[in-house]
From TrEMBL:
Keywords: Cytoplasm, GTP-binding, Magnesium, Metal-binding, Molybdenum cofactor biosynthesis, Nucleotide-binding, Transferase. GO terms for cellular component: cytoplasm. It comes from Alkalibaculum sporogenes. CDD domains: MobA. The lineage of its organism: Bacteria, Bacillati, Bacillota, Clostridia, Eubacteriales. Mg(2+) binds at residue 96. This is Probable molybdenum cofactor guanylyltransferase. It is found in: Cytoplasm. GO terms for biological process: Mo-molybdopterin cofactor biosynthetic process. Transfers a GMP moiety from GTP to Mo-molybdopterin (Mo-MPT) cofactor (Moco or molybdenum cofactor) to form Mo-molybdopterin guanine dinucleotide (Mo-MGD) cofactor. It comes from the Bacteria. It catalyses: Mo-molybdopterin + GTP + H(+) = Mo-molybdopterin guanine dinucleotide + diphosphate.
Length: 204
């Protein structure tokens, strides 16, 4: 089994704050998620999009899956994505995150290789985590499954039960001083700000 060959894109949310489906976000006349798929395909052999609308992805270099344990938020998507993953670890990102940094992905892989952790994510301050732009191992699939079946949803609390390596904020800012690699577009204002702020834009 390959160690780091898979990326999972979560795209099964309700987009209630944005007011339209974030799978249809457009930046520079391109669908943002198409850009994410193409960019990730340079680094990963297998791209899994977790979506309720697989038809949006025909012809793209990815496979699509739907949530199995539904209505539990992002962890539902991480669960089925890991289940379908053909690699030991999967990189996980959301469909509304435009700034992917390969040097940080490499840094996370190195930390996992060193520490043999079951997940690798970044802290924001001391109390918050960035659950995406991180890695999760298939080895925690059963933990996630029983957690979801107990009707729990918090990625933060799930990770406390497993062997997760946490990168601290200061370290992460060496790679992304303005936190742009964790930027996610939740509202129309976020989108407008992103489109008008070329400093934050590493798309294309
Ligand atoms: N597969 C799957 N993905 C989800 C689910 N809920 C959220 N996501 C994805 O997780 C990522 C982060 O979630 P949010 O930013 O809260 O997105 P959202 O839930 O669609 O938006 P809001 O309704 O405004 O909270 C996004 O890429 C969502 O598409 C879910 O139940 N299943
Ligand atoms: Mg949400």
């Amino acid at each position: 089994m390959k160690k780091f060959g898979t990326a999972i894109i979560l795209a099964g949310g309700k987009s209630s704050r944005m007011g339209f489906d974030k799978q249809q976000l457009n930046v520079d006349n391109n669908r943002l998620i198409n850009h994410i798929i193409h960019k990730l395909s340079k680094e990963f052999d297998e791209i899994i999009v977790v979506t309720n609308t697989p038809a949006y992805y025909s012809g793209l270099p990815c496979i699509t899956v739907e949530d199995e344990i539904v209505q539990k938020g992002p962890l539902s998507g991480i669960h089925i994505g890991l289940k379908k993953s053909s690699s030991e670890y999967a990189y996980v990102i959301a469909c509304d995150m435009p700034n992917i940094k390969f040097d940080y992905i490499k840094f996370m892989k190195d930390r996992i290789n060193e520490t043999k952790s079951d997940a690798c994510i970044t802290m924001f301050g001391t109390e918050w985590i960035e659950p995406f732009n991180g890695f999760y191992s298939k080895s925690i699939l059963s933990d996630i499954e029983s957690y979801l079946l107990r009707d729990r949803k918090s990625v933060f609390h799930l990770l406390k039960q497993v062997n997760c390596y946490y990168i601290d904020e200061v370290k992460a800012r060496e790679y992304s001083p303005n936190w742009e690699m964790f930027l996610n577009l939740n509202t129309k204002e976020d989108l407008e700000k992103y489109v008008n702020n070329s400093i934050n834009k590493s798309i294309g």
